[in-house]
Amino acid sequence: MSLSPPSDIASSQPAAATDGHRNRRLGPDTVICHAGRDPSAHFGVVNPPVFHASTILFPTLAALDAKAEAKVRYGRRGTPTTFALEDAVSALEEAAGTVLTPSGANAISTTLLAHLDPGDHVLIADNVYGPCRHCGNDVLRRFGVEVEFYDPLVGSGIDRLIKPNTRLIWMEAPGSLTFEMTDITAIVAAARPRGIVTVVDNTWSGGVFFKPLTLGVDISVQAGTKYISGHSDLMLGTISCSETSYERVKGFAQRLGICVGPDDAYLAQRGLRTISVRMRQHHANALELANWLAKRPEVTRVMYPALQTDPGHELWKTHFTGASGLFGFVIRETDRQRLAAMVDGLRLFGMGSSWGGYESLLLPTDPRILRSATTWREPGQCMRVHVGLEDVSDLIDDLERGFERLGR
Fold first, then answer.
1. Record's PANTHER family (predicted)?
2. Does 1 score more than 90 pLDDT?
3. Catalytically annotated residues
């Protein structure tokens, strides 16, 4: 079988094949393996090469005069390395186009600033990733944007919060730290007839288990630092857009001079090729660990929509085809010294702010400091765990010993 042109794969169109099955759509795992690649353009090299470039030379004055039409015309505006990653992520997210940014936080701020002007009103879910809240409070308000945080469980009640000057609604599925599920379909149904842009932070699913744009969402944002990278060694943000949003976001990002280094783009594309198999293993490991935690006497609550006992489970089943390795749980009230005894002695769970890599992480959290429209009242110590790709029996043994130290 010969590879189809990258554009066929990147746009999720049926791919041509030598056996005549021209109308057969490629499966999602196949798309992830092949989107954005064109070995025939690079002497048969499997992975797109790394182009380190700022200056692009034009052979004639006529070519220079026509450079606005050239795909490659200045390093900041993109090279074959970054174009390949954009095409691959667009295929993953089923998007019209993707804009790359240097971090997930920058993807958030770029998306918000590209759509909001002084006097506009934006609705942001109260359980969003911290940098999204900080951008709203510390940046948008300074520019005269009216920022309002809403209960992520509002569902169709979002209709009551929409104002004549509402321009954008931000969602995160599930929410940061406490993992509530938002009724995305209901919010899109309220926003779309009014021309309000809807955005979902889709980092938790990696773009594998959830496709927001297929539900009518305008933009899917990811911290590519997490699952797209998969190896805890690069910073990246992705903004995957519908056809109506792409040119606006792309133009705004270019005017701000936003670009991604070629080595990071190469590593991200390399990580992307295995994202499907990694995500399935994260799901399997996390589900087993979550069920184990739910039976522990030290644990009062597990916050993981993939669990049947989770309040958001039915919504999760409606939107998602799987779950990632990130979730939360609450342990009974304890002092800092006992908590330190638990986490300091862990062998396999590291303490670090990121997640999405192959390794497991565990952090104490405090959702109360990141709420304004709602109040977090759950007693006990919140924990955020990222379940990596280790043998889950070893992770359970490590945590079991940690709980023993906690109880001494």
1. CYSTATHIONINE BETA-LYASE-RELATED
2. no
3. 76, 129, 201, 226
